[in-house]
Amino acid sequence: MTTTPTSVAPAAQLTPRQVARRRRAQSARRTWASFRSHKSGLFGLGLLLFFVAIALLAPLLASSEGLEVTKATGGVLEPPSAEYPLGTDENGRSILTLLMWGARISLFVGLLATLISMIIGTLIGLASGFFEGWPARVLFRVTEWFLVIPFVPLAIVLATVLGRSLINIVIVVGVTGWASTAMLIRSQTLSIKERPYVERARVLGAGRWHQMSRHVLPNVMPMVFANTTLTVALAILAETTLSFLGLGDPTRVSWGTMLEDAFAVGAMTTGAWWYIVPPGVCVVLVVLAFTLVGQALEEVFNPRLRER
Amino acid sequence: MTEFAAAGHSVSEAVAEQEAGSGKRKSYGRYVLGKVLGSLGSLFFVMVVGFFLFRVLPGDPARTLGRGRFKTPEQLEAFRAQYGLDQPLPLQFLTYLKTTFTGDMAESLRYRVPVSDLIIDRLWPTLLLVGISTVLATIIGVYLGVISAWNRGKPVDKITTGSTLTLYSMPEWWLGLLLIAAFAVGAGPLPGIFPTGGLHSVDAVPGTVGYVLDTALHLVLPILTLVLVYLADFSLIMRSSLLDELGEDYLTTARAKGLRDVVVRRRHAVRNAMLPTTTLIALSIGFVVSGAITVETVFSIPGLGLLATEALTIPDYPVLQGTFLITSAAVILANLAANLIYGLLDPRVRT
Q: Which of B64, B243, B283 is opposite residue A148, by nearest beta carbon?
């Protein structure tokens, strides 16, 4: 992502900060233009905005009273009707209301867990790529171990030990999901470390901290950003699976806990498809949206991928 | 739920980087030694995590393991003495190592039998499920990936990529639920032809041909579920590795020699693209095991997964610890095997 010399031509009249700001705005515009050429990425972005809007507007679209079992108005597992567009659950609550409120929890858990795994993954990836000697080797081993270990057994062990709550689910998903990010960051760091500008900085006497924070990190960041969107997709899937296994917060409604309840009342054998299909479709759409946006971003930020 | 499908290229970059690294090439023996030592390290790490998660995090293990069943201090003391919890932590760890390796694990809180017995009992259904599904998903997934990458941008590619991405976004157990509703219960015009769950019918007699067929019939839907979700993973991985190879000069050379397109694809491009794919598929075994756990729950197949999810409700800590150890160890060993085979296939990684 180099800047063409013409763009900074009137630099004589501008302060360095203005130049930097202008350059940044230009690079953002270029990124957007490149992203716009990915149809699937745009589709994903649209889908994502739709679900985010639903999650944010849930209190306006459907009163939270619809979540309380004691105030439920519908019958048991009623099929879709004019009053309940997606039918009701075993407690007589509207599935549509549950879906809209469930979007909040599912997205919240997905985003927060991703934040945790991004921070752990970036730190460990940078450290194991930048440093040499045994600490880097140990970090690399630990990353490899986390990469290989089956997620569900580790997560259910962690979740049972910590107890059932929303924040614990976030911690479990975040702590088990950072390894692939760390691997990606490590391989990027290894290649950036050898580039001439880092060598120049080193020769000029820059310390490790300066090299890492001023040269390596800014160059790794775009990949981190693209990887983040892909990780959110996986975090949402993980939350759904853990909630389905009964490890979610019993007091909150998420798409995963809805499916857990649907499975518990045997909705798929009694033909109550409106209880099984909509929450799953929401999960698929949101995960797909994050994956599409992530892939488009990866191609935007990684020129090697764009060529092909 | 594989994390590498999407980030696939990055790992292939890492592999390439290793290849380009130090020029010294080790013998296969030293490569094997390194990989075995690495796996032993991972196994040890699994043991440590398995130990400390249950002993250190929750505070007093006697309380957690007993789940409030102990009313008097004497009962607590007796429990601690029985499980050796009154000894210092390093000694406890040694005892734990010893009992795990001799197969003399703790007793299940629910079944009142040693966890190792339960695990041996439940191992085969899971192995069957994971084994068949991994093989089928790999073959079909790689094939679809090749077709899709070779016809990049054409309708075939668009349809394949679209449907694999959708399958990739699904929780595997949800797909299982849908398949149960469609093919086991029967929805609309579809008759329910498959059993809704379990591994055998109650009236099947072990040791007969009918018994084997009955088991096979019970396994169709669970295996279909796992294969559909993981072939999506593997196909996306294969597509991206093959796309990496498409611009390479050796393909131009092969075409210039006058080789037919099919031959260029099969003998040149796919062979090279298979190398990073093998690594990534090996890494995904852990995810297939995870998927099997949830799918077993949905189809009530009496394997390790159902054992673990049933243990959750109590919660039966010794069983959870045991299933965690055995599944992790199995995945580490499967990876070791894949790495050793890979070392034979591609001498470049032995650097």
A: B283
What's the N-to-C CA distance of chain A in angstroms? 18
Tens digit of each residue's pLDDT (9 = 90 or more) over A199-235:
888 889 888 888 888 888 888 888 888 888 889 999 9
Chain A positions touching B269 (Cβ under 8 A) are none
Phi-psi region of B198 (alpha: psi -120 to 50; beta: other; left: phi over 0): left
Residue of A nearest to B290 (CA): A152
Residues whose CB falls within 8 Å of the CB of residue B144, separated by 6 or more in sequence, listed in order: B160, B164, B231, B235, B238
Is-contact B301 B222, C-beta < 8 A? yes
Per-residue b or e along B257-283, where b marks 16 or more CB atoms closer than 10 Å to that residue's CB: eebeeeebbeebbbebbbbbbbbbbbb
Q: Residue A150 CB: number of other CB atoms within 10 A? A: 23
pLDDT at B71 over 70: no
Helix (H) or strand (E) holding B4: none
Say if the Cβ atoms of A153 and B293 lie within 8 Å.
Answer: yes
Q: Is A246 on the interface with B (CB under 8 A)?
A: yes
B107 phi and psi angles, rounded to 5 deg: -85, 145
Is pLDDT of B260 > 50?
yes
| Rounded distance between C-alpha atoms, residue A155 and residue A247, angstroms | 10
The answer to whether the bond into B315 is cis (omega within 30° of 0) is yes
State how far the Cα of B326 lies from the Cα of B119, in Å rounded to an integer.
8
B112: left (phi over 0), alpha (psi -120 to 50) or beta: left
Helices then strands (H, E): number in chain A? 14, 0
- CA–CA distance from B117 to each of B104, B113, B121, B304, B315 (Å)? 9, 7, 6, 12, 18
A268–B180 C-beta distance less than 8 A: yes
Residues of A in contact with B320 (CB under 8 A): 156-157, 160
Listing DSSP states for B237-259 in one string gives: HHHHHHHHHHT-HHHHHHHHTT-
DSSP annotation string for B107-129: BPTTT-SBHHHHHHHHHHHHHHH
Listed as ranges, residues in chain A with pLDDT below 50 are 1-9, 11, 307-308
Q: What one-character DSSP code corresponds to residue A247?
A: -
Could you tell me which of B284, B338, B321 has the C-alpha nearest to residue B58? B321
Partners of residue B190 on adjacent β-strands = none
Cβ contacts of B11 on chain A, cutoff 8 Å: 183, 187
- Cα–Cα distances (Å) from A230 to A57, A97, A101, A114, A116, in that order, read 25, 28, 23, 9, 14
CA distance A150 to B328: 6
Distance CA B161, CA B237 (A): 11
Q: Where are the alpha helices (DSSP H) in B21-114?
A: 28-55, 61-66, 73-82, 89-101
The confidence score (pLDDT) of residue B113 equals 82
Q: Tell if the CB–CB gap between B313 and A177 is shorter than 8 Å.
A: no
What is the least distance, in Å, from the CA of A161 to any CA of chain B? 6
**B181–A271 C-beta distance less than 8 A:** yes
Q: What average pLDDT score do residues B213-240 get?
A: 91
Best to test chain A binding among B40, B130, B290 (most A CBs inside 10 Å):
B290
Cβ atoms within 10 Å, residue A26: 14
- Residue whose entry in the numeric block shows the structure tokens 């060993």: B333
Residue B122 contacts by C-beta under 8 Å, 6 or more apart in sequence?
B302, B303, B304, B306, B307
